[in-house]
Specification:
- The structure holds 2 protein chains of 2 kinds.
- Helices cover 85% and strands 0% of the residues of chain A.
- The longest helix of chain A has 39 residues.
- In chain B, strand 4 and strand 5 form a beta hairpin.
- By secondary structure, chain B is α/β, with parallel strands linked by helices.
- Chain B is globular and about 60 Å long.
- In chain B, helix 4 packs across helix 5, helix 5 packs across helix 6 and helix 6 runs parallel beside helix 7.
- Chains A and B meet through helix 4 and helix 5 of A and helix 3 and helix 4 of B.
Chain lengths: 262, 266
């Protein structure tokens, strides 16, 4: 019994400690993002990695999400005889909900895991220590470009996702299922307002920050991992847990933000 | 125990009563060490005694549980991250596993400290990197990646990176481990050459006894968590301290008896 309490206390302490570390980490990174010296090229490189190279994936997932939304929506709406609302249904669900969340999940899988692995390996092979010993700030050198790039890339990727999704929906709804194209877009124009776009924008900004925060911190604190952050397996475990944690956090925050913004 | 020369010299690094625990295990039990400016101090000792731990304390990567670590008279155990950064500007480090940035080319590896810490133009940086690689006998390696180089070449790149900013103190963590005799000699030659040229203070952690004695001004043995005397190589080999004596005999062989005599005794 005492052992059980001890274990519970042990776990609580560990997770509190980790939460504290993550908090300090976010503060340190944000502070450095806001203070000079500013670096231009590393940010561009990271935008290329996190943003530009994700466009293909975002195109595909966005297109098919829009298509399946139109397909499902059409059959549901037809029961009420209101196929004309298909455009607004597709657009609203994409812009407010599915766009930010799905794009975030894709970026976690593509760029988040890579960031954790990259920084984790650098931690493991003493490269981060080497940076510190050279009096090069590892936060400024490694994290800041990633933070800026993620916060810039996420809304743009989400916007692409939304647009492609809406056209995917048009493709299925109008060309395959015979909804009038004019009606599809007219319904969209009438029902989508700036608040909806704003909601998607805020969500994608927050998700971008959450993704880069969790992914980089998981790599940076590899040596503190409870399960042992050693060697290739340590990196693989940290990567897995960072993807899981980031995905769960994004979904939880999606609910919280929806509740606040609605 | 300390000789006169050691007391009067200008001190670069001083450790006083440094203690360090890993969990309940006491690794360092009151380490005292004094490194004079411009000299070479070698820390020897069996594996697992905490030699690298001492180095990490000097670098500020670990903080002691008790005691002081003074770098140029400044206690870094209480220093803030910013103060530590200032202290480290004078440091160059050659890590045990070299710790090159494996996703960057050799050129970028050596250029990194120059790019991050100076305001030099890219042309100046390129010239400096070229000069360093020449000095390390690494022509044509600039565009390769660390994994494409041999262990000895990686060490030399590490040395080039460590020396890029003309540091006042250079730390070497087992600079020749895993290299054959020729390659180790090459590293020692480069070390000797660069120290003569740049005049830096060197702290070397090494296993390569007795060869390393030739390069050193002072030898310190770490055993049982304590520095067992910091002596000149000659004094070290003649020391009466049983631990030092034991170390000298096991690493260099018994001085007064041949191998054959020893076999006959057993």
């Amino acid at each position: 019994m005492l052992l059980l309490f001890g274990k519970i206390g042990d776990y609580t302490l560990y997770y509190l400690e980790q939460a504290g570390r993550m908090g300090v980490f976010l503060f340190q990174c944000s502070w450095r993002v806001l203070t000079p010296p500013y670096r231009f090229f590393p940010v561009i490189r990271q935008i290329n990695f996190i943003g530009a190279r994700s466009i293909f994936v975002i195109f595909f997932t966005g297109g098919f999400t829009g298509m399946v939304l139109a397909l499902q929506g059409y059959y549901t709406l037809r029961k009420f005889g209101s196929e004309g609302l298909l455009g607004s249904a597709v657009a609203l669900s994409l812009i407010r909900e599915l766009g930010p969340v799905t794009a975030a999940l894709m970026v976690i899988g593509r760029a988040g895991s890579a960031m954790t692995a990259e920084i984790g390996i650098m931690r493991n092979s003493e490269q981060i220590d080497a940076l510190e010993c050279m009096a090069v700030d590892p936060w400024r050198y490694l994290m800041v470009p990633k933070f800026i790039a993620a916060v810039i890339s996420m809304p743009l990727l989400t916007a692409i996702f939304d647009v492609v999704g809406i056209f995917g929906g048009y493709l299925v709804g109008s060309l395959m299922l015979g909804v009038n194209g004019g009606t599809y877009f007219q319904g969209m124009y009438q029902s989508v307002h700036w608040v909806d776009v704003e909601m998607g924008l805020i969500k994608s900004l927050v998700f971008g920050l959450l993704i880069v925060w969790i992914s980089t911190a998981k790599g940076y604190f590899l040596h503190w991992e409870r399960s042992g952050g050693f060697g290739a397996e340590g990196v693989s475990r940290a990567t897995t847990s960072s993807v899981v944690l980031a995905s769960v956090t994004v979904l939880v925050w999606d609910y919280l933000l929806s509740a606040i913004l609605l | 125990m300390e000789n006169e020369k050691l007391k009067d010299c200008p001190v670069s690094i001083e450790l006083a009563g440094v203690e360090k625990y890993f969990g309940s295990q006491k690794v360092l039990d009151g380490v005292n060490l004094r490194v004079c400016e411009g000299t070479t101090t070698v820390i020897v000792g069996a594996s697992g005694q905490g030699k690298s731990v001492i180095l990490k304390h000097m670098l500020g990567l670990m903080r002691p549980d008790a005691g002081r670590v003074e770098i140029f008279g400044q206690d870094i155990t209480q220093a803030s991250a910013r103060q530590l950064k200032v202290v480290r500007r004078d440091f160059g480090v050659l890590f045990q596993n070299v710790a090159l940035f494996d996703s960057m080319t050799i050129f970028d590896n050596v250029a990194l400290p120059l790019r991050e810490r100076t305001h030099d133009s890219s042309r100046q940086i390129a010239a400096r990197v070229e000069e360093l690689l020449q000095m390390m006998d690494l022509p044509g390696a600039a565009s390769k990646y660390p994994a494409q180089l041999s262990g000895g070449m990686q060490k030399r790149v590490g040395l080039a990176r460590a020396l890029a900013l003309n540091p006042k103190v250079v730390f070497f963590d087992e600079p020749t481990t895993g290299l054959d005799v020729l390659k180790s000699n090459e590293i020692y030659r480069l070390f000797h050459h660069t120290q003569a040229e740049l005049g830096y203070t060197a702290v070397i952690v090494s296993h390569d006894v007795p060869k390393i004695f030739k390069l050193s001004d002072h030898v310190a043995l770490l055993a049982e968590g304590v520095i067992q005397g910091q002596l000149t190589p000659e004094e070290f080999q003649r020391s009466e301290n049983p631990l030092i004596r034991n170390f000298v005999e096991t690493t260099m062989g018994p001085i007064y008896s041949s191998e054959r005599e020893e076999a006959a005794l057993q």
